[in-house]
Each structure stands twice: as structure tokens, then as C-alpha cells.
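Whiteboard transcription, Tuesday session. T.W. wrote the C-alpha cells on the left side:
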């Protein structure tokens, strides 16, 4: 099958549709980050509403379950939607993933029941539904952007899609702070009861507002045509692929059919066959392992910044009478600060560097610098940091997010959408992403348990944090070493060449 349209896709100039695709695909990642990272301040509000007799603190098992269930749903969604994306098409599943996110967002805010157990069970169920939708969005967004982009700037466009995650984190913090400030001023608080009944409305409103960006882009998603690569290579409909390209790119039919011919692979081996494992098994293992290791580190830190910065949180001191709104505001403000000075700059740096430096190099460098920073704050933790989490510590800790985002957090999202054939692309991305979310569950739950105060003396507690930070640094070293397992750098290459 000789096709010229892939050459036209790879060599076309940057057009309006490319930027539109970044926004449409990126809104899924935006919504994903909004909900996954808004849970920390939400848990503060829930603690004040439903755990008044326990210093407003959740039991570790409850908090861990609430975090893990959304990540579990994400992993399941990545596997299911990843496979269906190759069988039924990217576009057909794209709207369904967004619908699940919208249903989950609204359902979380409308969590039913009048008792603590009913509300938490309902919230957990809808966070699972939300997670399935989020998981489905990962392989579809990455693959759609990779199949539309030209090969010269494909990495930058995909990194831009993933960078929307950083703005989702910032948006969740801003919305939380705004809601808490507004509710705090409208409803005067009593010193006897610093948790008004309106606090139960505030956390629901914060979660439901996360549906807005998904609703805005739903129509655009429904209007997107199937990618030309899927239509031509999987459905074998060259004419339809050409028409679809004419709809979205500023090209005539004659321009699309001009150019150098490419010869896509004619192989027909099934998924997980001997031939598949020979050609792609090593890449799949490397992608999955790198994502697994990265998410252990990234999610354990990102979801529990408030545990790291607890020195700055008045709510951690039982002697201080902190209102529910003030407690959530403080956690959200810390997340916003870290997002502004570390997370978002890392995403932006990745956009500009990834097509210059290459995927593998930026991933290896990101891992090793993350390891260095973790060792710098972990090894001397009990001597320098356990009593005063000061500005130098915050700067160093923030650098772990910068190097993650300008490194493996971005590349693990990009590489699986470039390394595999069109008929396995979303499936393999979903498998790698699900491995990552398994690591996220381990990291989030394990880090929470390590940071709990079980009545031990200060030194033993600090030792637990010290060991945790050193372990995270060691995981980054392993990730850097395993990056060498990737057999091919995808910078500047056609997706068909990678097959």
C-alpha cells in the first residue's frame, strides 16, 4: 500500500487545527489534574465536616482508599479505552471518555447520604467513575495528537497537550481558594463551631466546577474526524482518510496526493503474538516500567504536598482554632505556589526542549536530577529539615517537580504514542499508562503511611521521612538506568518509520 498522505501529514506546516487539537485534547488532561489534585484540600474540608471528634483528621486507611480508588479507575480506563481505541477508532471513544468524566465530576459533588459512611462511599464510587473516564482520555488524547502532528514538532504538540495538566492543578487550587474565601466571608463563623454546615456545600461545589472545561470542549470533540492514520492503516479506507485531511488541514486533494511515497508495514500479526513481542515487547516493557517508576515518585509527592509542608499549616496544630475554609485554603495555596514556580515552568521547558534534545535524553536527565535533589533533601533530613521546613527546602522540593515535568513525566506520556503501530497504538499506551497508575497507587498510599504520626518520637518520624525521600531518589536512579532499554529515539521520525 503506497501512501503519500502520511508524508503530507509529516511535512505540513503548523496550522490552526494543530493548536485547536492541543486545546481539545488537553482539556481531558486539565480535567484529570483538576480532580486528582483537588483531593488534598477537599480532604481537609471533609475532615472538618465529618471528623470533628478526631482533630479533623481522616484515618490513614480512609484517606488512602479515597486516593487509590480514583487511580484504580484511571488504570482500568486506560486498559479498556486503550484497547477499544484500536478496535473501534479513536474518535468514537473520545466523547464517551469525556461523558464519564462529566458524570463523575457531577456525581462527586452530589455524593448522597446524611452519614459519614454513606457520603464517603458515594464519593468513592463516583471518583472511580471519574477515574475510568480520565484513564480513557490518556491513550486517546496522546494518540490523536501524535497522529495529527507533523514530525518536526510532534513532541512539542504532545508536550503542550500534557502541559494542560499543570494548568489543571493550578486551576483546582485557585477555585478552591476562591470558594473558601467567598464562603468564609458570606457565612460568619462561631468560635464554638469553626465548621459551618455550608462547608459541606463548599467541597461539593469545588468538585462540580471541574466539569466546566469538559463541557466546553465536548462539542469540538464530537466534531473531530477520525485520524487519517487510523482510517488509512487500520480501516484501509484511503479515500476517507484523504477527505478527512481536507476537512481539518489547509490542503487540497491534489496537495495531499503529491509528495514522496511511504510504505507502511503490511504485517498482520496479532497483539501479544510472538512477532509482536519480538518487534515491540522491549519497547512496551520499557515504556511501562519507566511510567511505573515515575508515577511512584510523582504522585506520592504531588498528592501529599501538604504533608511535606505541614510546618506551614496551622491545621496541623490541635491547639489552634482553624476553620474548615482556612484549612483548605492553606493547602490549596501551597499547591498553587508549587504549580507556579516549579510544575508549570517544567511543562513549558519540555515543550521547547523535547524536539531539540530528544525524548530519551530528556527523560534520563530528568530522572537523574530528580534523584540528586531527593538525596540532597533526604540524606540530611533529620539534621537540617525535620524541625524547620524552610524556604531552601521548599525550593529544592519544588525542583523535583520541575525536573519530572521537564523529563520523564512528559516523555512517558509521549513515547508510547510514537513507538507502536497504528493498530496497537492506543492499546500499548493504555498498558503503559495503567502500569504508571499502579505505581501511583503504591506511591500515594505508601507515602501517606510513611508520613503518618503513629505516636512515635520526633526522631523516628523524621527517620521515616528521611528513608522515604532516599527511596524516591533511588527509584529515580533505576528509572534513569532503565531508560536505556528504549530501542529507538523517536525525535524527528515518522510514526510509520517507527513501525
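and on the right, the sequence the group agreed on:
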Amino acid at each position: 500500500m503506497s501512501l503519500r498522505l502520511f508524508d503530507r501529514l509529516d511535512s505540513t506546516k503548523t496550522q490552526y487545527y494543530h493548536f485547536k487539537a492541543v486545546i481539545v485534547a488537553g482539556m481531558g488532561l486539565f480535567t484529570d489534574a483538576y480532580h486528582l489534585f483537588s483531593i488534598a484540600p477537599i480532604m481537609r474540608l471533609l475532615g472538618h465536616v465529618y471528623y470533628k471528634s478526631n482533630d479533623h483528621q481522616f484515618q490513614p486507611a480512609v484517606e488512602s482508599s479515597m486516593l487509590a480508588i480514583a487511580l484504580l479507575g484511571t488504570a482500568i480506563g486506560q486498559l479498556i479505552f486503550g484497547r477499544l481505541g484500536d478496535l473501534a477508532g479513536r474518535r468514537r471513544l473520545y466523547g464517551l471518555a469525556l461523558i464519564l468524566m462529566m458524570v463523575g465530576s457531577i456525581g462527586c459533588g452530589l455524593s448522597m447520604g446524611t452519614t459519614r459512611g454513606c457520603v464517603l462511599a458515594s464519593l468513592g464510587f463516583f471518583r472511580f467513575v471519574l477515574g475510568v473516564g480520565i484513564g480513557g482520555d490518556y491513550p486517546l488524547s496522546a494518540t490523536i495528537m501524535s497522529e495529527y502532528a507533523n514530525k518536526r514538532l510532534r513532541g512539542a504538540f504532545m508536550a503542550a497537550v500534557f502541559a494542560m495538566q499543570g494548568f489543571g492543578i493550578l486551576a483546582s487550587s485557585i477555585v478552591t481558594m476562591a470558594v473558601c474565601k467567598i464562603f468564609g466571608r458570606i457565612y460568619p463563623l462561631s468560635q464554638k463551631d469553626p465548621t459551618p454546615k455550608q462547608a459541606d456545600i463548599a467541597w461539593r461545589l469545588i468538585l462540580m466546577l471541574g466539569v466546566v472545561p469538559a463541557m466546553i470542549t465536548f462539542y469540538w470533540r464530537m466534531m473531530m474526524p477520525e485520524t487519517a492514520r487510523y482510517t488509512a492503516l487500520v480501516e484501509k479506507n484511503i479515500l476517507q482518510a484523504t477527505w478527512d485531511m481536507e476537512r481539518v488541514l489547509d490542503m487540497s486533494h491534489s496537495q495531499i496526493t503529491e509528495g514522496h511515497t511511504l510504505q507502511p508495514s503490511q504485517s498482520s500479526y496479532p497483539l501479544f503474538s510472538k512477532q509482536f513481542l519480538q518487534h515491540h515487547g522491549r519497547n512496551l516493557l520499557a515504556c511501562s516500567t519507566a511510567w511505573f517508576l515515575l508515577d511512584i515518585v510523582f504522585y506520592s509527592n504531588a498528592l501529599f504536598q501538604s504533608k511535606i509542608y505541614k510546618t506551614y499549616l496551622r491545621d496541623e496544630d490541635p491547639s489552634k482554632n482553624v476553620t474548615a475554609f482556612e484549612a483548605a485554603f492553606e493547602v490549596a495555596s501551597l499547591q498553587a505556589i508549587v504549580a507556579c514556580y516549579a510544575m508549570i515552568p517544567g511543562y513549558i521547558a519540555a515543550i521547547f526542549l523535547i524536539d531539540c534534545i530528544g525524548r530519551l535524553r530528556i527523560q534520563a536527565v530528568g530522572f537523574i536530577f530528580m534523584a540528586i535533589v531527593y538525596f540532597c533533601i533526604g540524606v540530611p533530613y533529620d539534621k537540617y529539615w525535620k524541625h524547620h521546613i524552610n524556604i531552601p527546602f521548599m525550593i529544592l522540593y519544588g525542583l523535583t517537580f520541575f525536573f519530572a515535568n521537564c523529563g520523564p513525566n512528559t516523555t512517558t506520556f509521549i513515547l508510547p504514542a510514537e513507538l507502536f503501530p497504528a493498530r496497537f497504538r492506543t492499546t500499548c499506551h493504555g498498558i503503559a499508562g495503567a502500569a504508571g497508575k499502579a505505581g501511583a497507587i503504591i506511591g500515594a498510599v505508601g507515602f501517606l503511611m510513611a508520613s503518618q504520626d503513629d505516636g512515635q518520637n520526633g526522631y523516628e518520624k523524621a527517620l521515616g521521612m528521611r528513608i522515604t525521600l532516599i527511596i524516591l531518589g533511588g527509584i529515580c536512579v533505576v528509572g534513569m538506568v532503565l531508560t536505556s532499554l528504549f530501542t529507538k529515539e523517536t525525535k524527528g521520525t515518522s510514526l510509520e518509520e517507527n513501525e
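Someone added at the bottom: DSSP finds 21 helices and no strands in the chain.
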